[in-house]
Structures are given as structure tokens and as C-alpha cells.
Amino acid sequence: QQEKEDLQGKLKLREHLSQTAGKSEATPAPSKNIDSQMKQLQCKLKNSNNEITRLLTTIKSLRKEVQEKEERIQELQAKISRLDKDISMKRHLIEDLRSRLKANQENEKTSNETLESLERKVKTLAEDCSNKKTSIDSLKRRLNVATKEKSQYEQMYHKAKEELEKKDLKLTSLERKMIETECAMTELESTASQQLRGLAKQSGQALETVQKKLLLTNDKVAEFMTFVKALTRELQHSIQELRTKIKQAKKMQEVRACKKGLSHESVQLAASILNVSTTDLEEILEVEDDEETAKTKMEFEKDKEWLQYIQKLLEAQCPFASHLMDAVLEKLNEKKKLVEEYSSLMKHTV
């Protein structure tokens, strides 16, 4: 735009000069020069206008690409958040199933403990019964031996008989209770086994679905990582190409400046002094200095650090989208500046 304004100012000046020249008595030769200069300036104006329109179209297309990439990144982030929610819900379901399994296992332990206590009671009762049978046998022996003392021990015998009958009734009731408890235990075991089988089936199906979804999410995340890595590598490669092009353009300008500054005869004289050909002398003039090589090394190190930083961001925990976006935008701005520099250098060379 500044060049355009300068050219317009020059055109106005030329018009003013032409008008003043027309009024004053001048020769026709300078007016021809002014017309030719006017035409040259108009051509430069047209070229600059065309270049400005081209740059505007490229900027618009780049903005559209950036907007599309931002929308794509937002969609991917929304998908990732949805998948994280699904995973958290499934984890809660798994934890509930585990707590239920633990409760059922604890119930089984308590039922097993009650069974063991009942078996111990049965053993103690059986021992009591056997002891009582031995006592009855001893009483019968005593009755056989003590027939003479029958009248004295008849009351004791009746009492013992009554006690035995009571104990027999208790034994029968205990046996009935044992049978009932065994039936209840078998029913409990069957119901518990059915419930455990159902829970195991449900938990197995849920785990399979969760594993499938986890695999899908892992594949999507891997695809996103490869896309980001390829994008950054391509961006870094394009920036390096632009830098090399800018360096080549600068070298061309320097060589042209040297050629303009030196005449053909002076170039031949310098080549004869150095005992080299003119082409070799041009190559010597084109050699990079130490500052340029140091600058290229610094740029290479910065690109390497930038790629390592993006790798760290991808390997870091969520959220890292804002930092990744900032890093990519920084590189895009650098590329934009390099494109502008290259276009300006190409204008000057033209």
C-alpha cells in the first residue's frame, strides 16, 4: 500500500510537471520521457495491485483452512469428552457389580459359618445321646443287679424314664430342625448359585462391551496423534523450505549486487589474481558466512525443540488442546512472516 501511495504521488508529480512543461515552451523530447516514465509507473501500480489481490486471496484461504481445522479439533474434543463420560459411567457400573459380588460373598461366608456352628451342635448332641445311652445301660445293669432294692429305686427309675422320654422328644425335635435347616441350606445354596451365575454373565457381557469401546477410543486417539504429528512435521518441513528459498533469494541479490558493483574487467582481474575461473569466483562470493551458519543451526534447534514440545503435549495428560493450539498458531505465524519476506524478496529480484 505504501508503494502504491508513493507511485500515485509520483504520478501526480509527473502530471503536474507535464502540465507545467506544456504551459512553458519546452522541447518535445522530455515530454516523451515523462510519458514513458508515466507508463512505467502505471505498470508498476497494476503489478502492485495484482500482487495485493493475490496476497489477500491467499490470506482468506489460509484463514478458512485454520477455521476448518479448529472446528475439526473441537469436534474431536467433544467426542473425547463423550467417550470419557461413557467410560466413567461404565466404571461406576463395574464398581457396583463388584460391591454386589463382595456382598454375596460375605453372605456366603456367614451362611457357611452358621452351617459349621449347626454341625458342631449336632456333634455335641450326638455325643450327649451316646453318653445318655451309656448311662441308661448302666441303670439297667443296676436294675438287674439291684432287684432286691427294686422298691427303693422304682421312683428313681420312673423319674429317669420320664427324663429319657423328654430327652427323646428333644432329640426328635432337634432332628426335625436339622432336617429343616438342611433343606433350607440346600435351597439357599441353589438360589445363591443361580444369582452368582446370572451376575457373572451380566458382568462378563458388560466387561466385553467396555473393552470393545475402550479399543475403539484407543484407535481414535492414536489416529488423532498421528494426524497431529504429520501436521506438525509438514508445517516444519514447509518452513524449512521457505527458509532455504529466502536464503537462496538473498544470495542471488548479493551476487547481483556484487556483479553490479564490479565490472566484467575487474571480475576477470580478480579471478586472474586468485588464479581461479570467474564461475569459481562467483561460488566463493556465494559462500555463507559464520553468522548465517550459526543462524541456520539456531533455527534447526528451535524447530527440534518445537517438535519435542508438541510430542510432550501429546504425551501429557488432558487438557492440552489450548497449549497445542498456541504452539501450532505460533508456527503458522512464523510461516506467514517467512512467506511475506520471500514474496518481498522475489519482488525486489524481479
The sequence of SSEs as H and E is HHHHHHH
Structural class: mainly alpha
- The average pLDDT is 77
Helix content: over 70%
Q: Strand-residue fraction? A: under 5%
Radius of gyration: 51 Å
How many individual β-strands? 0
- Total helical segments: 7
Largest sheet: none
Task: Please give the alpha-carbon distance between the first and last residues.
Answer: 18 Å
Shape: rod-shaped
Oligomer: single chain
Report on this model:
With 350 residues, the chain is an all-alpha fold. Helix content is 93%, strand content 0%. It has seven helices and no strands. The protein has helices at 2-23, 28-145, 150-261, 264-274, 278-286, 290-315, 321-349. The chain starts with a helix and ends with a helix. The relative contact order is 0.06. Mean pLDDT is 77; it is low at 25-29.
